Amino acid sequence: MTPRAGRGIKPPHAHPCARTRLMQDKPQHFASDNYAGICPEALEAITRASATGSAPAYGDDPWTRLAADAICTLFETQAAVFFVLTGTAANALALATLCPPYCSVIASDIAHIETSERGAPEFFSGGSKLLTPPCPDGKLTPEAIRLCRRKASSPHASEPAVVSITQPTENGLVYTLEEIRALAEVCKEYGLKLHMDGARFACAIAALGCTPAAMTWEAGVEALSFGGTKNGMAVGDAVVFFDRSLARGFAERAKQAGQLASKMRFITAPWLAMLKSGAWLHNAEHANASARQFAQAVETIPGVQIAWPVQSNAVFLLMPEQAMNSLRARGWRFYTFFGAAARFLFAWDAQSAAIEALAADIRACMAQLPAPSP
Ligand SMILES: *Cc1c(COP(=O)(O)O)cnc(C)c1O
């Protein structure tokens, strides 16, 4: 489910709970990592880029060139780099570029492109289909790809042309390099392109401690949606084609889709600053560490179960509906996904005290439940 747009954050109730005591004036929520503000490096870069006065529009400016260069340096290769406004646009336009309209994209059944993009990949590709085999732990497997291929082998079916994996997955797991390489191998065998939805790519790099090259083109990934927004920027995700010839038509599609920002420098100056300063990685390390802190604080609460291993910046909790309701009544916002687990996501700005306050309120909500009848 996608969060409803337009509902503002209400101030917490006047309730004697940990949340209210802590955050009367500066509410912090862990419903999503895009609830966070702009990190200082990104914000200062916007101010600096504005202070220079006028600059060429539509990406024909020095910040955009330097940001694209910085991404190439980060990935140690001469990639084709583009910047768009949202992750949905990054995925949809990348997939439309890689997939003919009469073919299909294989992805996990919990992939953001399947559950949360309102058909944007299908719309922008002009007819391609998503094939979403059930993936019990959220990760796509070589067997699932083979199965999709077999099922779509008739000339009447939409033949698979692309595989899209999310790193980290929507339920917070991280594909190992071996797993990515194994997927890439099947892709090569069948002539499929491999796309990675890296809305939280930095969290995956922080988790594995490998180079961005190792997680992408060295492992066989051909195109990446590289998330900036959830990493601490105001807006703007990058699309990286490691094989430049695959980028043909992308710029034109982005313009047609209204995704070519005219004041591009306010997207790309923050990208440049985040990459140069290392903030992209520090932010992700902090987000992952915050998730671990939260997991440690809640794992001892009787009746609460952590649904998935905590490998990135997400923690999913299984707990009684009634406890979730009272947690919401205490002013905490969160969404329930994938088997009704409550999802908590941590961003660059997660405060230790707020994490402890949330855990304390969960403990209190659980303690208030009526004892189970014998
Ligand atoms: C947030 C997210 C996106 C992009 O979402 P936008 O809201 O369009 O920026 C893409 N993929 C995943 C896995 C995400 O979590």
From TrEMBL:
Residues 30-318 form the Aromatic amino acid beta-eliminating lyase/threonine aldolase domain. The keyword Lipid metabolism does not apply. SUPFAM superfamilies: PLP-dependent transferases (SSF53383). One of its GO terms (molecular function) is lyase activity. Its cofactor is pyridoxal 5'-phosphate. The keyword Transit peptide does not apply. One of its GO terms (biological process) is amino acid metabolic process. Keywords: Pyridoxal phosphate. Belongs to the threonine aldolase family. PANTHER family: L-THREONINE ALDOLASE-RELATED, LOW SPECIFICITY L-THREONINE ALDOLASE. Homotetramer. This is L-threonine aldolase. It comes from Acetobacter persici.
